[in-house]
Amino acid sequence: MEVINVPIAPGPCEPTWKSLGDNFKRPGWWRKAKIGMWLHWGPQSVGEDGDWYAKWIYMPKYAWGNYRTVYADHLAKYGHPSQFGYKDMLPLWKAEKWDPEVLMALYKRAGARYVIAQGMHHDNFDLWDSKYQPWNSVKLGPHRSIVGGWKAAADKQGIRFGIAFHGDYSLWWYQPAFLSDLEGPLKDVPYDGAQNYDGKKTWWKDMGLDLKDLYGIDLKDEVKMPATWKDGLTAYRMQSPLSHGVPEGNLKLHHDFATWYATKWTHRIIDAIDQFSPDFIYFDGGGSYPFIGHGTGKGLRADATPRVIAHLYNTNIAKNGGHLEAMAFTKGNEDPRAIAVNVESHVPDAIKRDQPWQTENGLGEWFYKSGTFYDSGMVIHQMLEAVSHDGNYAINIPLSPAGELDPGGRKTLEDMGSWMDLNSEGIYDSSAWDVWGEGSVVMHGGNLGKGQAKTPYTGQDIRFTTKDGAVFAYLMAWPADGKTVIHSLANAAGKVSDVTLLGSKVKLDWRQTDDGLLVTLPPSKPCEFAYGLKVSGVGLKAVSAMPAAKSSIPK
Predict the structure, then answer these.
(1) Inside any domain, residue 482
(2) Do residues 534 and 486 touch, judged by C-beta distance below 8 A?
(3) Over the Cα atoms of the chain, what is R_g?
(4) Which of 93, 159, 266, 520 could serve as a FRET partner for 530 with CA atoms 20 to 30 Å apart?
(5) For residue 517, what is the domain's CATH number?
(6) Does residue 293 sit within a domain?
(7) pLDDT band at residue 143, thresholds of 50, 70 and 90?
(8) What 3-state class would DSSP assign to 239?
(9) Residue 226 has what pLDDT?
């Protein structure tokens, strides 16, 4: 593993996974918080065409699924990427209606106890006054520190604050910008990343900007294509170590560039930590974590990730009188003791207690897309899927380019707040019970949309949490006959002393049998979407450790 020569704050943590594991302890605030908001917003929202806009505009044919329309949409709205590429989109993002204080108050009202603010996405654009990336939101576009605005608003509301960094992808992510159309009237005309601007006057040069700092460099000469590919350029256009089909071992990144990039990336993360003192940092490194030698860091195995985490932990320990209150999230690790884990768009099959983790969902696209489908119930149901498995839950409700919520997004937040008003007792500071649920229906993974909203839950689909000795059984739907049977709480589970319906003052009829806890609900629902029963007793243990069966839910 190569050492990235960037100094870090002194302290007990060294830039190794073992040292981080030896020093990390799950902070107490994490389990209490339980619910977060993902603030996945930046200049890619300008296209109003969803995620990865800055890449898909250079891929006429080879984008994933529905993203194949992005090239055509960009062509119709802004022009050909040889003349108007992603760099030219950046000044169009004005964030003119963004009010972080108003939004943060809405997030808190919805139940969020922490937020994850986008610091940089794969587009390599820093959303603060970055000392090491001149392509940033203070120099271009809004001319504001977006991270700084979110941080100040979170502090005012007493909400924990984290920053997400996805820029490791940028090591290879912009390679299509160095290509050209394979057919049509502009065939072979280079896209803006591949053009030679030497001696030409440009708006970005006038601002002291260099395209290398945004797009990186053309790595065409470093790509070795397999002989079975009929069209080498097509294969190159599709390249992505994550999922575009280039076999392992056929992509070699230029070592000097990769080292330069990882060093710059390390400086940028440390700069953000020093400016904003976040409660946690988040990495979207594909395959495992950034710069591991494959995935987003293919070709370079370096200590960049443990180095910046060690800097965060050491600065946080010094800030808190010798006690660590910070965390780092990755999608993989070399020592699970060292970090928390992101579980994107799904829930683990079993209860996961070994390390702190969260399920995270985009409501619709991660970046704003016109016509987003909104449904509050699917958000609350997925939240219950996560917390019943001993995780936290973070939802992204996309903001428009101007920085506003759609009416549907605002209603989702309001519905979440109303639901949490009545049901949060079994959410905040809770743990998974002995079993996570009963029933046969589970929401399928992916970004939340119409398929998830149609998940056919019944009153026998139940999710459990526990806190202060009580068991909370959340019914994922109101039973048609007004009755439910909780088999895990049969006589063998221990003696139940009381059952109440959260949000209701009606005294319930219930009895405990060898088959289960039989509960008759009142005629009126106390809320919408899901319904919490608080079951009191001493030392209640689930009758069966069998998890709920997984079902196939049509998309």
Answers:
(1) yes
(2) no
(3) 25
(4) 159
(5) 2.60.40.1180
(6) no
(7) very high
(8) coil
(9) 44
